[in-house]
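Let us work through a complete example step by step.
Step 1: write down the sequence.
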Amino acid sequence: MKRAPLLLVALLLLGIVPIQELELVSKSSSTNSNSGFSEVPTWRVGDKWLYSGLFDAETLIRENGVSASVGEIQGDAEMVVLEILTMQIENQSTLVYKTRMTAEFDKNGVDLDGYSGDLFIDYEFTEFTRVSDLATIKSDLALQIQFKALGFINIDVADIVLHNTYAPPKEVYDFPMRLGERWFDNYSQETTWTGSSDYISPLPADESGSEQSYFGVTQIGAPINDRGQTITYGGCSNSFEVTGWDDAGAEASYRWWCPDIRNHAWLHEESEGLTLDFRIRTYSPVASTGVDAYSNPGIRNEGIQVDLEFPLFSLDTNMSVWANTSTSFAGQNMEFRHERTGFSSTVPIDGNGSAHLIIDSGNALDASWTSTDHSSHGIIAWISSAGIIGDSTLTLDENVVALDLMAVADRALIERNRSGSVTELNDLTGWNVIPSDILRMELPIMNRGITSSAAATVETTDPSGNVLSHLIPSLSSLEQTTVEIFWTVPESADIGNSTVSWKVIPGALNSNDADSGNDDASLIIFIGRTPEVVLRNHSAVLTQDNLLIDASASFDADGGQVWCSFYIEYDDGVKQKNVWSEVWTSDCILNWTWIDDGDYSVLITVVDEERDFSQLEDTASIINRPPQVKIIASRTTASSFGTISLLAVANDSDSEDPWPGVVDIHWPDAQCEEGWYTHQCTVTWDEEGLRRYTAVATDDDGASNETIIDLFYSNIAPFDLEIGIWTDDEILQTDQQGVYHVMEDSEFWLVGEADDSLNDLETLEHSWSLTDNADFISSTSGQRSLMKTSWSQSGEHNITLRVVDDDGLFTEAKILVEVQNVAPTITRLSDPLPIAEGQLLKLDAEVNDTSSDRESLVSCWDLDPGIDKDGVGGADDDCDIIGVELEWSWQDEGVHSVVLHVMDNDGARSNQVINITVLNQAPKIRVSIPEQILTSQLIELDASATSDSQNDLPGLVFMWDLDADVDSNGDGDAGNDVDEMGMKINKRWRTAGEYHIVLRVADEDKKNPAIKEMTIFVVDDDGGLLDAVSSQVVGPDASILVQILAAIVGLLIIAFTVSRFRPKQDIQQWVDDDQTAISGGMAPELLQSNPSHSPPEYAFPEKQVVQQEVEQPTSLANLLDGLDI
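Step 2: predict the structure and record it as tokens.
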């Protein structure tokens, strides 16, 4: 809010309640080492806070010379949460609190415009606040003020509404707040006024512009200031003091945030001469037990606790979020919202009152910038049906580490004591000192890791080279501590830079410190000198003459530019009393005029680039002068018989009467319509040429002065041309730059008017040029013309009206019309029902625009808005498919966003995001098992025919439990073993019997694998010698020597029998979801056959023992947790 609105608010709030004595003092400058932090609170509809407020506009009123009583204004105001609603903020659906603060005040003995009376005020302040971080979105201040005096004087001082909008929302707090944190808040503010005021008119013009605020947490504890003043509320012992600084680093405000009452407990702000101070009196939360409105907020009966997997997280990473509430909400829906990324999802509440969700942390920045993290965003969980909200802050960092002790230069603070005047220096003010300054330095160290540090050592070096060692305690994640050193600037110190530095020495207990490069920090302290004031002599001047006060020779011994402040005493011209005004100049030269004679004080302050200053008091002597008179003519030329109004403006600088004094005006040679003695004289003349008029001014002392004016009467060109643009029923208004704004293809009436001498009005010819360099089109004759037109091309069009009189003299007037392109529109598309992986989706959209743009519309679909494929614009404006129709399929499970955007020939765009939910399909298991299985026979189990979606097949994981009735890994659960892994496995059973086999196949949904249960039958192999030999040739008991001998014998046999025997193929059968496993066994005739005699001993090689490591079977849960799928 700028100076004019502040002045208006101050004037309108002057008389809120009877004045009481309450001294405004600054905040306490003590420090606090409390290491706690404050999370973002949650409010409920019906929560109430009662504040005692104070307004002090003494400085603002005095500097603006307003005639009104001035004093401190006190009263109570109640703030209530009205509703929780959803708004579109920065193109994202956002939960918002709507609050209202109301008060009704009356005050006796108010002095307003010379009357003493009573003031009656209705005050209402409505604010919309973002739930996730309590940032202010917009506010409306409504004031109805009436003044009554003497029983019959009623003045409607104001019935106005002040609207403020912030984009992005204004973040005064940066949750979670910790001691020592500082942040910058960048936003645009738009201020508009509506309503009326009999006291101040017109209302201030609407304003908009960029703003930047600086805030930081400076201490933790009970709210208190330097004078020991506190709040009356009994709680809030763990409050956070949030200090605000201006661009120059000077303290502009402070507020105490109280987690107990979920709001600020104390707000103090000074801006443009207006001081505001609000302190909490009572807090009455709804749905709570144990509440004492004056000291204890009690406990909410129901609530939601939001827990993050880690409060500090890396960018673009999946993270778990839990929302815990009472079991009474089991089965209801819990909505999770990460609004900065546009994420929202609903999850059913489990029977234990808990809901869980995995979300993407994202990479979005916030408006409150700090040097120690990437951004912070509120994660919300709420039950809309119950109006209950839970909130927790996610802090993002590009490099999340376990431990990182770092020295933080931009959070350092130096308290400078200069001859008893204590000033706080910070990163904004600069570190500027002069000899003899006593410095107390607070040098910060913080832990940027996610785990706590052990105690460590900090080594400091002051500008004199003195080295000190300091012990610092253990620091939790993102916690800060400071070490304190003192240094007095030597009297003999040279002009220039000096350095104070500090270094963290982590020590052996902090050996995992991630970044040793940030262990050191330093501040460059500039040692300078105060500037010298050099004032040139000046003489006395008459009232109303400029007095040149020249301090331009002032200089700064340490170099650089200087600025000057002139604090000037002068007569206010209203109540004949002296007031003061301050003027800043960059050249240290001031021209000032006084309206009354006398000696006036001027205090000159010279300030250098380091904000050091020196002062000198000067006296301006002003001499009395005779009355002054000046004639002002409504116009200096006129056509014959034209009328000219003359106004004699006069004043008497030394008059005892109210300004401008009593001055009589006499017109000795004019035939004034108003008479001979008058200030206003209306004259006419029926001849051409020069005509001289004289005005004689006489003051209350009889002194006279006169002045003359010459007027010329002749034929003149048309004048006072005016152009307006009308719709069928109303006139269009221009913006603050005088530009008309119309929409493309809309029809309007151009209306032109002109004035001239009476005998020329009816013959005036009007012609129009409708755009730059266009030919003029003749319209109508007379004083007024009309023309209907429209524009199909957007952009600026200069409209020219030319009016010509019967003598050929013409005048032109121009207006600028900005034709605004109408952006195309998209008929809203709802998100389609979920589809399966690979399923074809068809979407058909409808787009529209104005008539001249419809044929040129270009519609595109961006199938992957997270990737900027064409390198032009943003990531969500690629043109993957052209046209309004979309046919596409997705192979991956999840929610896939597509963006439909349409652009006209002016580049205007509209877009809509459609979310497509693609559901995962579990694998379909198919297994191949031999038809007959014998003991000691090595068989192959083949699941290669298992099917799934195209993208899932390469990542399938096969887990075999080859005896589901046996607990292989000894964990007490026979159903979770994983004996083998792989699509195909080989297995040999030594013992005949029935075996229960379970195959689990997992795709990317590893917690829900497909399961296939099978039963096989293994029968004894009574093959005798043949089987014994075969076991030595193949399988895990095979002998290398036997294998060599078997190979030789085999070759000989093959040589004789290759033509007579053909190999027998294995008989297999597929087992899929619709079949059962085939149990196998040996044929009966094979079971009855025996070898005729035993083999010779040389057929058996010497026994060899193979040493191998036995691998303990693992569990299914451990295996699934280890899979990266």
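Step 3: interpret the result. The longest helix spans residues 1040-1057.
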